[in-house]
Amino acid sequence: MNSGSDQVRADDALVHDITRLLASGDRAAAVRLLVADGDIDVSFLLAELSSEERQDLLASSPPAQSAALIERIEPEEAATALAGVELEVAADILGELTVDTAVEVLEGMDAGQAQELAQGMDEPGGVPAIFESYDEGTAGRLMTPNPFRLERRLTAGVALEAVRVAARATDAVTYLYVVDDSERLVGVVGLRALLAAEPEVPLHRLMTPDPVSVRTTTPGRECARLFRRHRYLGLPVTNEANVLLGLIRADRLVRLSDEESSEELLGIFGAGEFHAAESVFATARGRLPWLLINLATAFLAATVVAVFEDTIAAIVALAVFLPVIAGQAGNAGVQTVTVLIEMLATTEASSMVVRRALRRELKAALVHGAIIGLLVGLAAAVYARSALFGLVIALAMLIAMLVAGAAGALIPLILRRLGQNPALGSGVVVTTVTDVVGFLALLGLAAALLVSR
Fold it and tell me: pTM higher than 0.70, yes or no?
């Protein structure tokens, strides 16, 4: 029952010990303590340190220990921490990381500094080659090069022995990819099939041909979509000639998928990404443009209300239901936006799929609008002691919900068609549309059916 509070006290004690070591100048001991306790999230602790203290913490310990610490914080925070570390020391620390993690840290640095650091690394065929050869955000940058592979001409017995040898040397053996004499990816073999086969059976008879793969130029967003769709343990990466060059590991795909989902969720309202080490100014600067856009659109909705000022003055009860209709329709619109963005991220957005999604969302909006409209209309009729007033409120809610469903479905699709990120600010646009239409429907119907009588 007290395990949660016990863990909090243990974390507090650990933070106290680490802080004491840092204050005394014993950076190496602080890193050893951090690395030894694999459960604590060190991001918040590093965020409390100055940039100089973070740099000293990494530079004062052996590269392997500093690398173990780097692996437990966000790449952007690691990039910030390494930015002021001496070039040779930073290169040694990056050299202890997996290739894809090291490349991800480099991507968080200033371009010139990252280039200089990559060139200073003593592994020309690894991190520097990946960083310099492929564009940021592509599968080439995400992959770990030279994955384990089996030659097509091998027999099951020879292939199984090769797997045993490779498994003793590394834990990076996931799928058993099969290549031809030109190193082109031709298939994948399941371990169960390999174990069950007679030793003399040719490997090409056991393999599944043409496995799912990505090119080095495939966008990371597409890689994340494939992962969410298939849940593979890794994605093989090939060049235009289908030569197997690398593998995007499952942990990288999980992180990439989570990042994409978080960016989409935050982007719906223009909130941007969050980083523990990010300054207040950087956070405010990333969100301010969308807040200003939202302010401008709020004035648009206010203008609609101002046009019907006489109608509100004549029927004051309308003011009670304006926020109800706007809020309900706005929430419905954002729900639809979220569903559509998830659909675009996890399925092929063919014209048939899009039409089916639009029909589904509009039908759902009609059902929701009818139910919510009926409930709100009954409440309005009782409140105003007028059946006609309740009818106006119910019709306005139905119209607003239908528009919310249509806008929530169409806006992400339109943004995608224009080549933009469909998640970026969709929520701001949808809530503006629902506010304006909701106010216009309610006040317009009231002016026509109530005031003019």
Answer: no
